[in-house]
């Protein structure tokens, strides 16, 4: 049995707007290009970090009401913005670090995704940007 | 100066201080904040000559 588990309940902020109550999935992947630096004499391939290529994928319930999902995102598509995620909505600490992508690009926004009898939900991917984690 | 309208970014009525990377235009367009900036008035220029002003002669 795991000694410590995490019930997914992160906070998600896009361009300073807290959309936590519309979000139901979030995956932030910190990734760097792996540049091979293996040289003669080596017995295994080795790599060094190249450019960062981070990505945040989030799923939001769609709402066209004031101050909701569409109002937040409509003006951001095709631009770079800042997103912040935290494991929980509590204050930032070493046990609840804030993870930020600054200058991350929102390439596409599904402005309508409707299915009969289902809550409308959209999936977004914020690409690139500078990653930083803070514990205070 | 910007004022918060939506509780999603803070307490409505409080001053919103954007960081350098905040897309303020998107927040205004989305109705989250309002801009209190008003166009600065230009200084008035008095083009009439004061009665006691000395005349300039070459």
Q: How is the main sheet of chain B built?
A: 3 strands, antiparallel
Rg of chain A, rounded, reads 18 Å
Which two chains share the most extensive interface? Answer: A-B, 17 and 18 residues
Overall pLDDT of chain A: 95
Describe the model:
The complex is a heterodimer of chains A (136) and B (58). Chain A has a single domain, classed as Roll (Pnp Oxidase, Chain A). In chain A, 4% of the residues lie in helices and 43% in strands. Chain A is built from 1 helix and 10 strands, in the order ββββββαββββ. In chain A, the strands form 2 sheets. In chain A, strands 1, 2, 3, 6, 7, 8, 9 and 10 form an 8-stranded antiparallel sheet that branches. Chain A has a two-stranded antiparallel ribbon with strand order 4-5. In chain A, strand 1 and strand 2 form a beta hairpin. Chain A starts with 10 loop residues before the first strand and ends with a strand. The model of chain A has no long low-confidence stretch (mean pLDDT 95). Chain B is an alpha+beta fold and 58 residues long. Chain B has a 3-stranded antiparallel sheet. Chain B starts with a strand and ends in a 23-residue tail after the last strand. Helix content of chain B is 10%, strand content 14%. The interface between A and B is medium-sized, with 17 and 18 residues.
Structure summarized in a few sentences:
Chain A contains one helix and ten strands; from the N terminus they run ββββββαββββ. With 136 residues, chain A is mainly beta. In chain A, the strands form two sheets. In chain A, strands 1, 2, 3, 6, 7, 8, 9 and 10 form an eight-stranded antiparallel sheet that branches.
Features:
heterodimer; A: mainly beta; Pnp Oxidase, Chain A; eight-stranded antiparallel sheet; two-stranded antiparallel ribbon; 1 helix; B: 58 residues; 14% strand
């Amino acid at each position: 049995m795991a000694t410590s588990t995490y019930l997914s309940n992160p906070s998600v902020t896009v361009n300073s707007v807290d959309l936590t109550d519309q979000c139901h999935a979030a995956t932030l992947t910190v990734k760097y290009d792996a540049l091979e630096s293996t040289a003669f004499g080596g017995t295994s391939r080795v790599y060094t970090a190249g450019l960062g290529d981070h990505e945040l994928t989030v799923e939001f319930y769609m709402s066209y009401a004031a101050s909701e999902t569409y109002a937040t995102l409509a003006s951001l598509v095709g631009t770079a913005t800042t997103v912040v995620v935290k494991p929980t909505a509590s204050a930032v600490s070493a046990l609840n670090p804030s993870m930020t992508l600054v200058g991350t690009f929102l390439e596409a926004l599904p402005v309508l995704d409707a299915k009969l009898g289902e809550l409308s939900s959209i999936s977004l991917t914020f690409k690139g940007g500078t990653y930083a984690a803070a514990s205070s | 100066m910007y004022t918060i309208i939506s509780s999603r970014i803070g307490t409505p009525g409080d001053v919103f201080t954007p960081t350098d990377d905040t897309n303020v235009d998107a927040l205004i367009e989305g109705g989250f904040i309002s801009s209190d900036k008003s166009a600065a008035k230009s200084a008035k220029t008095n083009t009439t000559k004061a009665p006691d002003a000395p005349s300039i002669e070459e």
